[in-house]
User: Fold these one by one.
Assistant:
Number 1:
Amino acid sequence: MQQGGRSAPRNAAEAPVVEALSAEDAAGLENFDRIIAKDSRVEPRDWMPEAYRRSLVRQISQHAHSEIIGMQPEANWITRAPSLKRKSILMAKVQDEAGHGLYLYSAAETLGTTRDDMMDALVAGKARYSSIFNYPTVTWADMGAIGWMVDGAAICNQVPLCRASYGPYGRAMVRVCKEESFHQRQGFEILLELANGTPEQRAMAQDAVNRWYAPSLMMFGPPDDDSPNSKQSMAWNIKRFSNDELRSRFVGMLAEQVKVLGLELPDDQVRFDADTKKWEYGPLDWEEFKEVLAGRGPCNAQRLERRRSAHEDGAWVREAAAAYAEKQAAQHTAANAQKAAA
Ligand SMILES: [Fe+2]
Ligand SMILES: [Fe+2]
């Protein structure tokens, strides 16, 4: 791949359009291609194409932001949870989401981007996060529907990511998925209890399922023919299944579990196609999806404002932590110097 010797172009007209790689980069690319072909793992110190790095930073930071912004719709109900037990479960769940954000920011940092940069992009409104978190949580049953459907969709999406080719991302996902399955069960249990409660509670559960159904299906991203990054992401073994494939599996899971709840999905076109062996569903409003993604959803402004003020209010904590770390490091250095002198 290296230019030079007899094969070098004699004049500019013969020069290749794409600049040739240096010997080091060519060897790096060969190693990268070998890792991907073997379905093995790329680690932070391995050479990787810039486009692979950029694509991962985009995906992992968006994922991290979604976890952090996703704390808000549920935190909204911590003070109003109907019992102490529900309150403590919900608090643990919201706290888990903060942890997911931290694992993911750490994974993205191994690609050479700082957490400060990622956070600045988020609070400046320049970074994306999952559109689902821009919908309001208007009743207690929404905690059930979010756990069952939103965390359920997250599991469908994230279990295959445990095998993502980038090591730190895949490993972060393993722990995240374990916690997500607890989240989904707690949501299902909230709905089950409401569905077997008074007629009002049952209606509240059905209403929440009706409102969260379509947004949760849209969490898998646009249809395959309108998803520009998917193909490359699959070639790099980051993504394992297409958006539509995952969405169809998710619908199948909901269709079975909703029977146990004794509720209904607000979609009369849900059916299993025996020929294609896929679950089918009714049309989704992709215009609404684009609007919410563009920042014009019901709660976008509120979510971002809340995140921004929390970031500003927390500045003193970050400063104190940095000063403490500096002090510890200085003490450590002084102790080492003393040991060396002794
Ligand atoms: Fe999460
Ligand atoms: Fe979760």
Number 2:
Amino acid sequence: MSTVPWWSALLPGCCSSEHKRWAFKATKPIEKQPSFSDISTSNSMLSPEDLSVSLVGSNLHVFTLAELKLATKSFSMGNFLGEGGFGPVFKGFIDEKVKPGLKAQAVAVKLLDLDGGQGHKEWLAEVLVLGRFRHPHLVKLIGYCCEDEQRLLVYEFMPKGSLENHLFKRFFESLSWLTRLKISIGAAKGLAFLHDTDKPVIYRDFKASNILLDSDYKAKLSDFGLAKDGPAGDETHITTRVMGTHGYAAPEYIMTGHLTAKSDVYSFGVVMLELLTGRRCVDKARPFREQNLAEWARPCLNDPRKLGRIMDPSLDGQYSTAGAQKVAALVHQCLSQSPKRRPHMSAVVATLEPLLELEDLPVAPFVYVAPADDDDGGDELTDSMRDNGPRRGRRQKLRSPSEGKLSDAALCREVGNRLRRNLASQQKPMDA
Ligand SMILES: Nc1ncnc2c1ncn2[C@@H]1O[C@H](COP(=O)(O)OP(=O)(O)OP(=O)(O)O)[C@@H](O)[C@H]1O
Ligand SMILES: [Mg+2]
């Protein structure tokens, strides 16, 4: 049975020698190698025309660089959203003025860093996977740009950014228990969809930073640069270079390179554990025995008496005990050393969904946050507090009252400003 992925026919043209400098590093991946290096060996180049022909029917827009500069105010730092292994991401706005026929909407434009570790293959995988699928829990790719060396991706804008930011960045208020459940169910549905299509896809990079949130905390998967076709026919696995992110990748995959959909299930278990505990999957700042989250938490997952010890303190006890126990037992299964004992993602969805209905949420004491002297906004709720926050008419305690008062726009600006300050010294100015 052939292990050649469905998009391989397109790849023999992807890496000309002039594009060698795109190959390949990644900020966090385990091995600094191209994710699709086993697909392409040819040096000829897939033309943008070939690509648009292959994507007929996908509804993707082909943008010029000039149009995307217009959409993002020349990639101004005021529009900067963040940066990952592929390159920087900018907020933009597209409408008829940018390109006739476009629906007016906010977008996120991801720009390949030509001096970075990823390249054309990751870009192409993203275009081909997201061009092929549409699903409520996969981020929508609106279009792309392929001009000379430049490679860009244009996505729907996800107003609440990544789950990683909400879990681990200081200036975001703590997510409520129900919001955490909702996010895990959404992300689980995205993975289940990929695993259950006619030609299953293994996502390979399931992690908190790749789960994006809309204004209502609906989760969508992003970043398909490492995605692979799953085993076909009688195959039990595919063999591939080990790629992914430390702490999230399944142990058997790291050891053998054998990849199955169950590798994604392990990564899902790790993210669920981050949602339960509020801790990062790997944290070198903690005592040695606590650095690897899965190892540290595993003994408590199947023991209701110990579970409280590992729950995120910022939940302040405001969670369903029965729900947390069910989630913990599910996480225990997902993190099983044996891939066969891990559940299918469709079973994960079926286990998680009923937990939203559990009624045993403790009633929190009313917390009055006195307005500061320079407070001009009274005690009105911010968007983010409304979406994430008070349930059943109760006000939720904030991590920090002053930070909780930031609007979404202010939050984005604040994040951008902080990241910009960090990056300013390293980043060369973008060509306007
Ligand atoms: N569609 C989008 N809408 C809003 N923000 C986005 C969107 N896509 C990415 N971002 C933001 O841009 C930042 C960088 O995202 P990116 O996916 O490039 O990197 P990452 O996930 O942090 O790292 P990695 O390269 O390991 O995946 C993130 O902080 C994310 O919140
Ligand atoms: Mg990402």
Number 3:
Amino acid sequence: MQLYCFIAKDEFTIFLYCIRESVGIEPSSLDSGHFIVTTRGKFLQLLPVDCRVSTTCRTMEEDKEAVSAHLNGVSTGKREDYLEWPEYFMAVAFLSAQRSKDPSSQVGACIVNQEKKIVGIGYNGMPNGCDDDLLPWCRSAEDHLDTKYPYVCHAEMNAIMNKNSADVKGCAIYVALFPCNECAKLIIQAGLKEVIYLSDKYHNTPGMIASRRLLDLAGIQYRQFVPKRTQIVIDFNSINKFGKLNNTTE
Ligand SMILES: [Zn+2]
């Protein structure tokens, strides 16, 4: 007899659930010698396990479907090309960037807490109440005051200031561009713990070198996000079509 279970790190995720529902065996009858399947969402590995099952298991619908499908030898037909969490958060940052009025650089940021909830979004723009028709957007001018730099708020600053939670301590920030040194200061002071960036195109500039120096000293992790797909298309018409959302492309 084989019993199957999804285990998510230390959680016996839906063990009792799938066994009761799909095989009809009560948890009390479990003992050693059964099998356990590791890795959430996919049956990758079968391992013998001592099945003293935690009674604090939690139900996760996705896992339940996958376990049932495996036990029944059928597919549930669940979509496979849905966005994974990191793609989703980075995409939110990129979507937010489309609000930017900066002609040369549109950057978005998305702050996510440990429960994978978005708690702040921002993009680069002029400060609240400052008419962005009255401020310059150029990158260079004879007078520094005629460039955007003294005025514009970066996406990271706006995401932190726009937070909808009491604070952003321990959160991760998804950003299109590696944060500059000014944003690194804000990230540190706000208590963020991780930076996930897509592009590092200014890597060798003094601002980025200073930024890494600060983040390193503060013990903030940073890592580059490598997307599996090059674009995500939002098709407003897809909702009117039957079945599959045509919102993703490889
Ligand atoms: Zn910045």
Number 4:
Amino acid sequence: MPNEKLNDIPQWTGRFYNDGVQHEDMFDKLKEECGVFGVYGHDEAASLSYYGLHALQHRGQESAGICVSDGSEFHYHRGMGLVKEVFTNDIMQNLTGPVAIAHVRYSTAGESRVANAQPLVFKYREGDLAIATNGNILNAPEIRKELEREGSIFQTTSDTEVLAHLIARSRHEDMLQALKEGLKQLVGGFAFLILTKERIIAALDPHGLRPLVMGKLGDAVLFASETCAFDMIGAEYVRDVQPGELIIVDKNGIREERFAQQQRKALCAMEYIYFARPDSDIDQINIHLARKRMGRQLAIEGFVDADVVTGVPDSSISAAIGYAEQTGIPYELGLVKNRYVGRTFIQPSQALREQGVKMKLSAVRKVVEGKRVVMIDDSIVRGTTSLRIVNMLREAGAKEVHVRISSPPFSNPCFYGIDTPSREELIASAKTVEEIRKAINADSLHFLSKEGLQEAIGRMDEGINGGHCMACFDNDYPTKTGDFSKQMISRV
Ligand code: SF4
């Protein structure tokens, strides 16, 4: 991510949208972490994984991989790019076997290169092992240093490899005992899928920070980061994997064990606000409906009279519909996203930028011209995107632009697998709401309260924050962070 300081944010640029900020990504958004998918007991495990990864593509676009076991050996392929770019028909034909794990990656720790693409595949004394993970291991650098001192040689810069080394070096002969011992040493938010030649194992961190669900398709057992992957292949949701739980699936059936007691439940609230797909359910709560409730609650807390409500596509559309329903102000498509801007898009020159070439988002002039517009967005990170969108709406003729954010101010970095800028770069860490309003050039600004967010998600019965991590809003991290967090900040 570019290193843009708050002071560099222009106040009012004249040419509004493209001026002033050199930013490689027009959307100053948080980056999703990763997505995992697993199949046990289906002849077309690789094809199911391929479709499952398609449904999870929003969680990571840097690399994709599938590893299949035919019972005697692994067949795998990993590559940089989107799922459809990494896997061809020829490649898929070689991925034979009834058990598979698969992964899409956005790198939060470790470099972006194919050696770090997952599933990572290892050989150790008990056989072959493949690992796919979503999340972040806070103490991985510490453990890695220790292991290297003792002679381990790492093949990748990925955090995930630490678990493989812990298993390989364990005194336990039994792989499951070695795995449990390894998992116990990890601090952070993680959802693992582990493949051996004859079984698949799912494990979730003791706080349940990252989502992981189990499903079934006929007799086959499935795992995925989100339920939308099950819908894609006509599979049924069975249940969410629980914090500290280990689920083992092999020829003896399904075994549910623990590697740690559940600690304070702290499922990432940003999954509901922004990361997950609207058609997914997490803990049986539908994401679209939760976002709509956030919009309704936002209207109750921060009503402003206006002519139209619009949402920043795609993640804020549901909240905008909720805001419109609650207030009676019509919802309109005031902003349109250009869906076909890919990584190979030729960036416009500065001269074209100055002529107003907009790559990713456009305002619908006929909708906003002369209107008082309520613009709903899910979060403000550095503030640069919000400023651009507000200015774009003004350039398209909006008379007033009122910004409503369907989450509390994002003022602390995440250490659990979400790529966030350092605290200093988060606009809400240093500025008041009024100062942010000025910086983004809005007529008014309101953030959803933490209590309102909790109520909108609708799971109130599990302790602190209703069982959610909200550390990026309230600085109350569910795990110890200590020195780990300093390492993370320097790596972002
Ligand atoms: S700090 Fe924020 S983004 Fe990170 S896990 Fe917690 S709620 Fe999610």
